[in-house]
Amino acid sequence: MAGELRPRAPNGLEQSGPVFDRARRLARTLFEDVEASVVLLSDGDAWRSHDPTGKAPKDAPVARMVVDSGKLLWVADASQDDRFRHRPNVTGSPHVRFYAAAPIQLEDGSIPGVFAVAGQTAKPFDEALAERLQDLADFVADEWSRIQSRNAREAARRESDVAQRMVAMIIETAPLSLLMTDLEMRILSASPRWIESRQLGDGEVIGHSLYELFPSTYEKWRPVYDRCLGGEPIQADRVEFHRPDGSVIWLQVELTPWRDSAGEIGGLIISSHDVTRMVEGLERAERSEERLRVAMETADIHVWELDFRRHELINIGAPANFYTDEQTYERLARDIWSSIDERDLPRVKEEWRRHEQEGVPYRPEYRVHRSDDKDVWVQGAVRYLTDDEGQPLRMIGALQNITDRKAAELALVQAKEEAESATRAKSAFLATMSHEIRTPLNGVLGMAQAMAMGTLEDEQHQRLDVIRQSGESLLAILNDVLDLSKIEAGKLELERAEFDLEETVQGALSAFAATAQAKGLTLTLNIQPAARGVYIGDSVRVRQILYNLISNGLKFTGKGGIKVTLSRRGRRLRLQVADTGIGVAPEKLTGLFQKFEQADASTTRRYGGTGLGLSICRDLAALMGGEIRAESSPGEGATFTVDLPLERVADSPERTLRVTGERPAVMDEAAAIRVLAAEDNGMNQLVLRTLLAQVGIEPTIVGNGREAVEAWASEPWDMILMDVQMPEVDGPTATGMIRARERAAGLARTPIIALTANAMAHQVAEYADAGMDGFVAKPIEAARLFEAIEFALETRRKAVVEAATATAATAAA
């Protein structure tokens, strides 16, 4: 049909048209009133030998049955055969009744198709005719095999011709240039490429000294030439060369001493490669075998050829860099596998098997054990040369010394392991130090809070404020260092949860209200209507960015104030913190976001600080997919802008405000609340006891998780404060034991609050999985502790009321 493409026949059969026609004629003579054809199946296509339309034959599925079974198929009457009577070519045109097909089986056992006959008259099975049909199929298979063999030989010949032409082309365009000198650096011989690359024109260079041609190189290159004339080969990967026309090229230069027949050094052979342009090529084919040998030794490459007919190993290029004496080389000549280290031999043999059977490129890396008991790492590559029958004649291979590369790889692995070990040690050290520092900080800040709740004189309040502010500053520095460590290690995890933006921002501002008031500064917040609402993200890190920016503004502002503005720009939330402080020169703005950097050293001395806050802001913004930038001029303050891709999901909820300092309602009955506290540190025990005493709670304190479980089992408790890290049994484990016993005994759930210095998102999730109902971070803030207690007790009361209501309803029913 015009415009349609005929499916391509499998290789060889499309050349067998006359043979197919002859077989079809014989079939029609034998069977009478039948149509004969060769049906081929290839890669999902079906092809009929005599169909010029290119359409897939209707009997292709039947042919597939024969191919899959490998047996002759004889259908005496298709209209009476349940397998075929519903087929379109049986029920309709051409109304096939008789159909037979024999598999075409090739020498390799494969069956690409069938030889089939079909007629409109039913034919009972005839064994003699069935044998003739199989003979015709075998005749077609034999013809195909003959053509395939011929095609294979032609393909091998073409491949060899293409390879030879490719090698010739590469050799003709070799980019290398060579130069031969005597001991006085007078030129004995120079390649045209060398003369051309130096722009020496057609002038005679033989007999001239390199110092004479290039006097400016004397001072720099004389020591190098002398070293090489002393017997040291030298390679320079990047050499800048200024040509006469003023242009500059970069060369890779190798210098090798050559020796005369007496073994004495007679001068240098200098090879150079223009690495200014990426060009491919090899040395000119006309170079002598000696020059080629020297070049291969310089490149540390050994080429060999194995003649299968003569069982002879021919060495091309001196193997001095691989084998130290003739013993090693002779051993290789007798058995090519004998040179490979036993540790690598099984792997190399497997690579060879895959190369031979699957055609996988053979480029193994292995060790050669030399006779001096030293190992040399080499990388190999081979290629077969075959005859017209495809049988291997020779195998050419190359070995490259990669010992230095392997040593570098090993050093890199060791360095990586050492770095990872150092990182683990650093993380463990920071975790330990965090815990050890937070413990005394918990004592300082906890006691300061407890004392502030009492009746004090103004001077005493001021002293406590100094203690509190100093402790909080130390805590902020500790948190900055830990956050920086987590960011650098890639272990800082971001939460993804809903949070109210205004509540989050107000929380950051409230922490600085007293500081701003003490300095006589204003601290204002402007939230544009479009920015209000509930967002999805990490509220802790958003608050931390604002906290650092506000803290930075307060530090460098002496008069005026700080203004925080929230707005939306497309799908991004924009946070801006502007101050009226000392400002920064524009050229120093970029450095502000570097670790441990401030505008200058005097700034650090005058205002203090670690220089980590803005760096952490930048890293946190980047982790959230956002960015931060600064605008400032000296004396005009600074504005920091943070754009974060946070999704707004709802309007802000209605809030019920509680007066600051208002005593929680649940605390009115504090004296009656039975609290069990598990804490192993004596200082922390005292802090807990002191803080809880301020609201009338007298806790029972135990020293580890095992004692907590035993105390819980001995009497009822309203709630448990559970430290996470304790000896014998830790907090989460003890909580799990309590929850298991509650379920087994059908007891009401006792609220358990975690006390921990480790409050990352994944750690909090682990505490919840263990059965804890909330957490309070260390150092403990009294307000947070009381809120957690209030929340836990309210939750328990609601559960008790709901249970009582359900019980009453059940009884009434």
Question: Could you give a short description of this structure?
Answer:
The protein contains 22 helices and 28 strands. The chain is α+β, with helices and mostly antiparallel strands.
Write the layout of secondary structure elements.
Elements (H helix, E strand, L loop, with lengths): L16 H15 L2 E9 L2 E4 L11 H10 L3 E3 L12 H4 L6 E7 L8 E7 L7 H46 L3 E6 L5 E4 L1 H6 L12 H4 L4 H12 L4 E9 L5 E12 L5 E10 L14 H10 L2 E7 L4 E5 L9 H9 L10 H14 L6 E5 L5 E12 L5 E10 L1 H50 L5 H32 L7 E4 H10 L2 H7 L2 E6 L6 E4 L1 H17 L5 E9 L2 E8 L21 H7 L5 H11 L3 E6 L5 E7 L2 E4 L24 E4 L3 H12 L6 E3 L2 H10 L4 E5 L7 H15 L6 E5 L4 H10 L3 E4 L4 H31 L1
Parallel strand pairs: 17-19, 24-25, 24-26, 26-27, 27-28
Antiparallel strand pairs: 1-2, 1-5, 3-4, 4-5, 6-7, 6-10, 8-9, 9-10, 11-12, 11-15, 13-14, 14-15, 16-18, 18-23, 19-20, 20-22, 21-22
Helix pairs in contact: 1-4, 11-12, 11-18, 12-17, 13-15, 15-17, 19-20
> DSSP helix count?
22
Measured on Cα atoms, how large is the radius of gyration?
A: 44 Å
Strand order of the largest sheet: 2-1-5-4-3
Beta percentage is 15-25%
Query: What is the end-to-end distance?
Result: 84 Å
Count of extended strands: 28
Which architecture of the largest domain per CATH? Answer: 2-Layer Sandwich
Number of domains: 5
Q: Give the overall form.
A: extended
Which oligomeric form is depicted?
A: single chain
The CATH superfamily name of the largest domain is Histidine kinase-like ATPase, C-terminal domain
Mean pLDDT over the residues = 77
- What is the name of the CATH class of the largest domain? Alpha Beta
Helicity range: 40-55%
Question: Which residues form runs of ≥5 with pLDDT under 50?
Answer: 1-8, 163-174, 278-287, 601-608, 655-666
Which fold name corresponds to the CATH topology of the largest domain? Heat Shock Protein 90
Sketch the major β-sheet: 5 strands, antiparallel
